[in-house]
Structure formats: structure tokens, C-alpha cells
Amino acid sequence: MLTVEIDAPALPIVDASELASADDAVRAAAIAKLKSACVDKGFLYLVGHGVPQELIDRTFDYAKQFFAKPMEEKMALDVAHSLTQNRGYEVPGLQTLDPGTLPDLKESFLMGVDYPLDHPCVVAGQYNRGPNQWPEGLPGFKETISAYADEMERLARLLMSGIAQTLGLPEDFFDDFNRDPVSVQRLLYYPPQPVAAREGEIGCGAHTDFGGVTLLMQDDSGGLQVKDPVRGWVDAPPIPGSFVVNLGDMIARWTNDRYRSNLHRVINKSGKARYSLPYFFDGHPDYVVDCLPGCADEANPSKYLPITVEQHLRDCFAATY
Ligand SMILES: O=C(O)CCC(=O)C(=O)O
Ligand SMILES: [Fe+2]
């Protein structure tokens, strides 16, 4: 008998337009799929998202142009010069996402919602509010990356509403968290994995993401791996036009680990440069993340103390920089 092997995708595929559907049955089916992804690996592919391919392509194109700039020009935007310490350029090796191993090979540019120095939030010293640092000589860079990040924010809000519904909570349950969110759009450049790499020296060390949800667009290089509880590291190859979405540590805290904030890493074995665009949606700094209704009982008491978004993020950054 002839058997045909069908390569199942490494992660479930969820359609954003179905999550937002006005048809209750369509939406319920999408919510059920989202729920099983949250419980299983905490990772999924997102399609039907409505982000124009042209905007994605243009964002990648600007990322390439930015990283190709001379080091002095990039260093002029060093994150150390930014008020928030996390807007601008990060040299390779600045972050060690898997503490105790060698620093990451990746190089990055970070931007967030732009708050001018005289904005009341900035004057009040609110966590992570400040102006961006933009490169010179790249007309359209700021507008493109900002438009891309706006699209990510739209999708992150849709996902948070979907996650609330997977827990039997009202769709607007996370609105307080979503208000004026701390969010970071990163552009990442990975050099090819060095032939003479030392043990543990990889593009991006094994880590979980810190916040609410992450939306990642990868180029065609591959290299992203996700930890499967049974099979170990599995590849999460790019599916053209789809995002990889994963849950961060706050969702694990909220759900008392019913939902998984999963380990992932990047080893760029493509032999060429790899570019990716992760967006991190981390919520309002003052919001208190606490065990959600229905996620703890006598048999499974709450494992985590309530914590503000700000304190949680400060703790995570201190551990990896
Ligand atoms: O570049 C990637 O594919 C993943 C990056 C990542 O996991 C991160 O920046 O947190
Ligand atoms: Fe990550």
C-alpha cells in the first residue's frame, strides 16, 4: 500500500479573521484552536491577519538597510543613550537570553510608542516611556516601522481578547492591561552561525518571552526552534505570510501555568544573514498580573504572587542584560 507522508506544520495555525468573526460558530471554533495552542506549546502560526505583505516586505527592507550601516552610525543610536535604555541600537553580545551561556550573536534595533520628553508620562518618570532614536539618512524608516508596529498592536489586542475568551472571560477582560501598553518592536539581524562557534554560542539563547504576547515575522532562513515537552527542540520554520505567535511569562503567571510560556531559541544555520521582526506586547506598567478567576483551586493553589507589569519586566531585564 502506498502511504503518503503529509508534513504537518510544527505548530497549529490560527486564523485572525476567524477570531474576529461576527459568526459565533466560526469564532468559537477559532477560540477552541487558540486554547489548545495555549495549553500545548504556547506557540502558533497566525494567518488571516490582514497585514499587507507590502508593509512586511518594506519593513524587512529597512531592517536590512539599517543593519548594513557602518558601526559608528549605528552606535550613535546606542540604547544606552535613550532615556528608557531600550530604544535604538543594541550591539551583538549585549543580551544573554540564556543566562550562564555565551552572549547572543544577534544585533538589534528597538522602538516603542514615541513619548516626547515633555509628555506628562515621561515627566512623571513612568516606566519605559520616552522618545525613540531614529537613524539618519533612511527616509521613510520611521514611518514604515511605526506603521508596522501599529499593525502589531492591533493584532496583539485581538489575541488578548481571544485569550480572554479561551478562559471563559469577557472579550474585554484585558482592556485595563492593554491600555497605553508598553510594547517593543524589534528588528533583528543574525549573522550566519559561525563555523567555529563555541559551545552554547548561538543567535539567540533559549528563553521564554517576558510579557503578554509576542508576534514574530521571520524571513525565509529558518532557525527558530521551540521546546516540545516530549520531543525536545522542534523547528518552527517560516510559513510565508504568517506570524509566529507565542505567549509570554505574564500569561503563564495569570493562568497559574495552565497556559505555557515556552522556551525557544534561534540557530541560524542557513549560511546567510537572517532577519526577523519580533513585537512584544507587555501591557500597562501599573497593571497587576494576578492569578485569573478559575485558574487556581485547592488542588492547584496559585504559585505566583501578584506583580506589576513594571516590576515583572524589570526583574526579567535584570536577568538577561
Ligand atoms: O528571531 C527570532 O526568530 C526569535 C527572536 C526571539 O525569540 C526574541 O527576540 O525574543
Ligand atoms: Fe523570544
Question: What would your notes on this structure say?
Answer:
There is one protein chain. The mean pLDDT is 94. The protein is globular, with a radius of gyration of 19 Å. Helices cover 29% and strands 20% of the residues. It has a single domain, classed as Jelly Rolls, CATH 2.60.120. The chain has helices at 16-19, 24-39, 53-67, 71-75, 120-123, 141-166, 175-178, 249-254, 309-320, and strands at residues 13-15, 43-47, 88-90, 107-111, 183-190, 204-207, 213-218, 224-228, 232-235, 243-247, 264-266, 274-281, 288-289, 307-308. The longest helix has 26 residues, at 141-166. By secondary structure, it is an alpha+beta fold. The site of 2-oxoglutaric acid (AKG) has 11 residues, from strand 5, strand 7, strand 11 and strand 12. One of its GO terms (molecular function) is metal ion binding. One of its GO terms (biological process) is ethylene biosynthetic process.
Report the β-strand fraction as a percent range: 15-25%
Give the strand order, joined by hyphens, for the main sheet: 1-2-10-7-12-5-4-3
Spatial gap, N to C terminus: 56 Å
If you average the pLDDT, what whole number results? 94
Overall spatial form: globular
Label the CATH architecture.
Sandwich
Total number of strands? 14
Order of helices and strands: EHHEHHEEHHHEEEEEEHEEEEH
Give the CATH topology.
Jelly Rolls
The CATH homologous superfamily is termed B-lactam Antibiotic, Isopenicillin N Synthase, Chain
CATH class: Mainly Beta
Can you tell me the number of structural domains?
A: 1
Unreliable runs: none
Helical element count? 9
Structural class: alpha+beta
Radius of gyration: 19 Å
Catalytic activity: 2-oxoglutarate + O2 + 2 H(+) = ethene + 3 CO2 + H2O; L-arginine + 2-oxoglutarate + O2 = guanidine + L-glutamate 5-semialdehyde + succinate + CO2
Protein name: 2-oxoglutarate-dependent ethylene/succinate-forming enzyme
Family: Belongs to the iron/ascorbate-dependent oxidoreductase family.
GO molecular function: 2-oxoglutarate oxygenase/decarboxylase (ethylene-forming) activity; metal ion binding
